[in-house]
Every structure is written in structure tokens, then in C-alpha cells.
Amino acid sequence: MSARVHSAGDRLDRFEVVSVLGDGGSATVYRVRHVLLGSEYALKLVAAPSGEDRERLLREGRAQSTLRHRNIVPVLDAVSIGEDLGLVLELVDGPDLARWLETHRPDLATVDRMATDLFDGLALAHAHGFIHRDLKPSNVLIANPDGDVTARVVDFGLAKDFTDVSPGLTQSTWIFGTPAYAAPEQAAGASTVDVRADVFSLGAVLYEIATGQRAFPGKNILDVMQTAADEKYADPRTLREDIPTRMVMAIHAALRANPEDRVPDVATLRAIWSSSGAPAAALAPPPRRAMVEVTPAPVAIAADASRWPVWVGLGVAALVVTVMVVGMTPRATGPYDPTPQAPEPSTPVSGGTANVAEDAPEAPAPAPQATSSDAAVPSTPGSAALHAPAGPKPRVAASQTSDIASPLPPPTPTATLTSAAEPPAPKPPPKVRIEGDVSEVVLFAADGERVSPGVVREGSYVVEARFRADEPRVHALSLDLSAGDVVTVTCSAGLRRCAPRKLSSAEAP
């Protein structure tokens, strides 16, 4: 059902319409002014929503009211205006990213700043248990569009709370998200995706910010999704010559079609994006599987009984092809690994004992120096031999000869380093803190035992909440706690939900 579009000056409950910011069919976004306070807000209004549309709008409100961050547009209230339902949001006085990119080509400093905004906003959402599932330029608003721009994520209507074990919304369309930015696995089942789906969408958005073009343009939905599944996109360097290698490598790492090959989270993607000192070879993604195709030539086999030479020849040819492919693509099917590989150890000089590369110049033997005290000379076989009187040399063991011949000190045994390492300190037991404005919150262990908040044992727990005094307690949340976890559970009577937040070591009391 299409939303009824109101004109400037119309009264909507406590708000007066200033202008229409956007009309998305079933939902219309207005710039409104509070009639008593005079402050301005954005009002997203859905006309007479169905049960599913209503739940989706409330899900958006719950997510964005929980996530308070400068890079996420907060929801401040939910209002009913006749049969319509709306969300009151903080007003961002600027266009969305899609419209902004139509008239702006950001410099690299601005690209970096916008990327950091998106990293920060999504990382907070993931830390609170939410996956956006529909990140795209039109769901990013730009504050201060003509100055030091700030990117702010909005529209969590398709957000998935991966801490919620209750049944979710029915899937009214065959795919969640927008095909040009959605991860390929979302087509197979949007309810099973994890944070890596947002990583893929973020990679597509960063590609567009940096190059000004979509990573996966297409004639239709199927064409777009097929190019994404095949990882067929133009290298960003062909569209923008000054783009740094670190940005290119981060985009490559995010746009892997297989989530197992993709970087696992926003923090890892941010580390690659920021790795300006890393060499390109260390950050280069593995070649795409489509680039390595071996088609064996047909071999005519004689009809006689003596076929062993033919099969042996085929086996040798297959072995050679396999070795060549493995040599060319050492990580073609493995996960993306941005860690630089350690160089191979240098080859010792033939016939010598010192671990010196063959192309290194031979170091001259140090001349013996007189010392004022015998205590200043280490009591090693090598040093004793240097100060021995002239005369026939005694026969010594091979290991002593090696020490005398080598100008380098013997390497420290690995076993000594290992034995000196201290065992890691044990992690403390988990802690749970509960806060909020609900009538009652109860914590139960997996065996049904009621547990007081504070220091608890490792294991699974259930949070039950009574949001109003005249209502029964309901299942609000499930928790899996490990040693060292410090979790704050915030319950809101207005939003009728409880949300966990895992504290970092710096935030933990």
C-alpha cells in the first residue's frame, strides 16, 4: 500500500510537516518540526502497515534506538498517527551517499574518512548483535556534505538480531537486501547469514566511493547476482589510478563470493585498509578460481591389449599439470590471509659451518686481542683455542672445530626460549550485569537454576523479563558465557526487548 504523501504545513500528531525528504512507496520520510519544542526531526511514516510491515518497522526502531553512535542515525521515538505508524529519527541535514556521489568525486583523504565512519558504525552494530543485511549507498546519509563529510548508516529495517532465537519475519521476497550490494549467500537464505554478509556489502560500497562506479552493474537482477558470484568486477586501479594498494587489497578481500574465503569481520577489513606499510605482495588476494582452467587434450588409445604405456603417460602428464597449477595458485581455494609469509631460510655455504648465504661476502676472522683479566674471556672451546700457546694443536671434536671456524656465535637453542616462556594467566570467570527500566529481570542457568547477576559460571543462560507489572515474564535473551566475558544486558520497557553488550577489557569494571 502506498503511503499518503502530506504537504508542508500539515499537522501529524505532535509534528508539523516542513518538507518531504523522500518517498519510497510504502514509506515516506518527512522533515518535521515539533509543534511545542520547535526542534526538527525526520519522520519515517508507513501508511496502514500490515502485520509484517509493522514488525519490520519496529525492528528497525529497536535496532537504531539501541545503537547510539555518531555514525548511526538514532531512532528517538515510535508514533501512531491514525492507522499509520512512524519512526522519529534524528535529522541529518544532507543527502544520501548515492545522490552525493552523483555530484562529488571524493579525494583519497575523504575516502579514508568515510571508510572509517562505516567501519566504526558497522562494528558497533555487530558488537550489539545486529547484522544490517541491506547496506548500500542509499542507506548511508552524508552529514556536512560540502565540508568534512560524515557518513551515517540508517535503515535497519532488514537488520537481523543474531542473539534472538525466536522465529523471525517471513520472507516476503526471494532475497533480502539489494542485489547490487548483497552477498551471494543472501540469495540462498537470508536468515542464515552472519556478519560476513555486511563485510561483502561494505566492500561494494567502498568500491563505489573510491571509483565512482558500481562493482556489479548488470542488465537485470540475475545478471548482477551472477557477476557477484563469479567475482567479475573491474579492478579499481583501472578506474582510478591514484588508489592505494591497501584500499584495492581490502576491496578484493571483502568481495570474495565464498564467505569462507572472505575476511571474517569488519575489524580485519579495517586492518587491511589501514595497512599502508605492508608490501603489495603480502596483501595480494589469491587468484580467482576461474583464472586457472586446465583442459586436457584428447588422447587416442590403441585398441590392442598393451595399454600400460598410455596410462603411465597420462598419469605423468596429470602429475605435471597438477604441480604446475599448485605452483601457480598456492592459495586459490583457501581463505584470504593478509599476513606476510616468512622468507625461506638461506642456504649454508657448501662445506662450511656458519649459516651464511652463498652470495654474502666472507667475513674476516677477528684478530685476537689481549685482555687484562682471564675472567673477561668466555670459557668456551673456541676462545680457549684462540689463546692457546703455539705448538702442535690437539685433536678436537667436530663441534669444537665448527665453533673455531665460524666467526658467528652459535644460535640460541629453541628449547631454551620455549622453556623460559611463562604460561598464560587463567581468565577470570564470566560476569553478567543487568540494567534497564523493566519491572523484573531474571537470569536462569541451563539447568533451570535461578542465578543472581554478577560473577557466574561458564555456560548457557536465559534472560526472562517482565516488561510491565501486569504482564507475565517472557523469554528475552539467550547467553553463552565463556571465561573472561563481561556482559551488560540492557532491558527496555518501551522497546520491549533486552540486548546484550560485551564489554572490552578497558570498559570492564
Question: Main traits of this protein?
Answer:
alpha+beta; 4-stranded mixed sheet; Phosphorylase Kinase, domain 1; Immunoglobulin-like; Transferase(Phosphotransferase), domain 1; 509 residues; 14 helices
CATH names the topology of one domain as Transferase(Phosphotransferase), domain 1
Major β-sheet strand ordering: 1-2-3-4-6-5
Q: How many alpha or pi helices? A: 14
Low-confidence stretches: 161-175, 277-336, 338-365, 367-407, 413-419
- Radius of gyration, in angstroms, nearest whole number: 33 Å
Distance between the termini: 50 Å
State the CATH superfamily name of one domain.
Transferase(Phosphotransferase) domain 1
Please tell me the CATH architecture of one domain by its name: Orthogonal Bundle
Number of distinct beta strands: 18
Q: Roughly what fraction of the amino acids lie in strands?
A: 15-25%
